[in-house]
Amino acid sequence: MPTTRRQFLSLAGGVTAAGTVPVVTLRPLQATPAMLNHAIRNIVGEAPIRTGRVKLDIPPLVENGNVVPMTVSVASPMTADDHVKSIHVFNEKNPQPNIGNFCLGPASGRAQVSTRIRLADTQKVVAIARLSDDTFWQVAADVVVTLAACTEEMN
Amino acid sequence: MAALINVPAKARRGDVIEIRALTSHIMETGFRHTVDGKLVPRDIITSFTCRYNGAEIFRADLFPAIAANPYLSFFTVAKESGKLEFEWIGDNGYSSTASASITVE
């Protein structure tokens, strides 16, 4: 006798109730803009973030998200009274919103840091600088990624 | 572990010099899966420190979003002759060091 739709559905319902259907993981694979905001607020606290003074050099179009060169520089005299304390870089859509925190000081001479990062998707990258007077300055850049990093299968 | 350090051998006092440091490390993100669905555990360098004659001049907290074989470039003022020491610390008790010397005239 062919199985009717009703029988099939009641069977499927029973199976679900018994919990034998594989559990689907609901962990998001991408950081959401809300996570980005949260990560930024973890560093900045309630302080206002102004736009400017920080420069983010990153290619607008990258072919390989596994290695993206990036340079952050801040317009600062880097003296004992007026210097950059730290630079923080964030992303919008990687599994985790943080990229790196870099601590500088008057001994740095120049407020500039370069590294290579991973980007899992076309997204926004945000750099924030904390100055010695505890003001925060930010800049954002949009990057188009054609080959994503981080979440691909391992061979 | 192999590290590549680039520091000028000589500098004039007060010059701002660039320091470049690269070390070989897989920087496994902890977000990748094998073909049969198993999560590959995270294995990254979490911290990098540079000391100039014992004084810390640069520190970085690294996250999985830093590319494999982490490369860092930063600056310092050449104050005195001496030694620059580099230290990388990571997951699973990873630790490695390197050093370079500089002559300041």
Automatic annotation (TrEMBL), chain A:
Pfam families assigned: SoxY
Record domain Ig-like SoxY: where: 41-150
Xref: InterPro entries: SoxY, SoxY_para_1, SoxY_sf, Sulphur_oxidation_SoxY, TAT_signal
Annotated Gene3D superfamilies: SoxY domain
Name the UniProt record assigns to this protein: SoxY-related AACIE arm protein
From TrEMBL, chain B:
Pfam families per record: SoxZ (PF08770)
Sulphur oxidation protein SoxZ domain sequence ranges: 8-100
Entry protein name: Thiosulfate oxidation carrier complex protein SoxZ
